[in-house]
């Protein structure tokens, strides 16, 4: 029985002898975590994805027109105007509500929109891109029934 107790008592020492030695550090010295070139910690983890927006960014907000007359309501026929807010697009005879945003970065937004107008409902996948000076907006549609060519709007003065 005594020899069995002695073996049990020596077991942790035997296990410790098999492990790597513990590196002693001076008191107060911190251990640095390895860093990957992209700034991530050195554990091989992928960098975190950029958060996807949930609203239309402010740079897109406001009224935009295809023709100069679209920026005024003098004739009441601003058929080429689009007004963009946080979650809506307003056209002459339709309104679109923001759906899922698939891409969002400075001056570039791609999302789906649920349209209603003239008694009908439809969905569109649209990319909006703003020019570097913020004065032009290009609208490109994707998918079935999409416009064949992009449309370019000019920012209306407030």
Automatic annotation (TrEMBL):
It comes from the Bacteria. Residues 1-16 form the signal peptide. Keywords: Signal. This is Uncharacterized protein. It comes from Qipengyuania aurantiaca.
């Amino acid at each position: 029985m005594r020899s069995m107790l002695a073996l049990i008592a020596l077991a942790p020492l035997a296990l410790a002898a098999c492990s790597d030695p513990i590196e002693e550090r001076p008191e107060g010295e911190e251990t640095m975590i390895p860093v990957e070139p992209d700034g991530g910690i050195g554990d091989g983890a992928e960098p975190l994805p950029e958060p996807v927006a949930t609203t239309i960014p402010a740079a897109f907000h406001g009224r935009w027109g295809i023709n100069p007359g679209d920026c005024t309501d003098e004739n009441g026929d601003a058929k080429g105007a689009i007004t963009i807010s946080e979650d809506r697009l307003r056209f002459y005879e339709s309104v679109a509500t923001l759906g899922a945003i698939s891409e969002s970065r400075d001056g570039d937004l791609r999302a789906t929109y649920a349209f209603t107008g003239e008694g009908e409902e439809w969905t569109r996948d649209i990319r909006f891109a703003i020019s570097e000076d913020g004065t032009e907006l290009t609208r490109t549609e994707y998918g079935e029934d999409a416009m064949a060519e992009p449309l370019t709007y000019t920012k209306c003065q407030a």
